Amino acid sequence: MNYAKFNEEEKMLLMAYMKINQLKRENVWFLDSGCNNHMYGNKEWFFDLDEKFRQSVKLEDNLRMMVIGKGNGKHYVNGLTQVITKVYFIPEVRNSPLSIGQLQEKNLAILIQHDMCKIYHSRRGLIIQTQMSANKMFVVLASVISPTSICLQATFEDNT
Question: Is the pLDDT of residue 15 over 80?
């Protein structure tokens, strides 16, 4: 096999892989015990956003980013609708961290055991469950429920 051709095919394969991952990435959260606040980089994930809210956050590498809003998002996770509140909007954020500390402030119980993270609500029971990834991260897949989505059901009953 010609090395130049192999290298070209390798690049094409990598580009296809990156595009697939980018499509999936917008529905991924990372459970993060070192993060003080939930953060989204995508404005479309919010159904309620106060764009007047301003603050700066410092990341682990001492990089500061501006928070240009704070709000709530609605997502579909593990078959349940979840509302995530007090989320910072930071357009530069590439990965969406879910703050373990903020989840505990909501009186959720978080159990990490046997390579599994389970999050429990006092009335609803198990609301999130995820397996630890190969790089020791807990990743939660979520579908965004768009604020512009309206679900209507119409039924027609013929009483004649």
Answer: no
